[in-house]
Amino acid sequence: MKPLIRFNRSYSLIFVLVLLIEVAIAFFGKGFIRYFVGDLLIVILIYSFLMSFLRHSKLKIGILVLIFAFLVEFSQFFTSNLANSDIMTLIIGHRFDGWDLLAYTIGMGMVFGIEILIDIKKSK
């Protein structure tokens, strides 16, 4: 039986790279870059973090990340006053936006597409 936890350097490097991009977007991004690209990248960030340590189905982890992102977004719809601090606003946002759901979906679609291409290349 394979251990469920292991360190994966490739996913860890992706995590660090995407984290640096997200920090730059948080400080310097405006408009479309901050509000759409930042949300698109956040699911990639979470996915790469989890894949850095977990040995599990890529599809299952990807779907769980997408569900988590959707739950956070829908929680903003029901608790718009939850984020009373700048840190909480940065982490969970401050209002529901359907465009965020699209960004999360596109981000995970990109992840799945890249994972499929990598698997095809490895099988040749």
Task: Give a structural overview.
The protein is mainly α and 124 residues long. It has one domain. 78% of the residues lie in helices and 0% in strands. It is built from 5 helices and no strands. Helix 1 (9-28) packs antiparallel against helix 2 (31-53) and helix 2 (31-53) packs across helix 5. The chain is globular, with a radius of gyration of 15 Å.
Helix content: over 70%
Number of DSSP helical runs = 5
| Record field, number of beta strands | 0
N-to-C span? 27 Å
Strand content: under 5%
User: Rg to the nearest angstrom?
Assistant: 15 Å
Query: Which descriptor suits the 3D outline?
Result: globular
Q: Could you report the average pLDDT, rounded to the nearest whole number?
A: 89
Please trace the helix and strand order, writing H or E for each element: HHHHH
Largest sheet: none
Q: Which regions have little confidence, pLDDT < 50, spanning 5+ residues?
A: none
SS-derived structural category: mainly alpha
Number of domains: 1
SSE blueprint:
Layout: H1 9-28, H2 31-53, H3 58-78, H4 86-92, H5 98-123
Helix pairs in contact: 1-2, 2-3, 2-5, 3-5
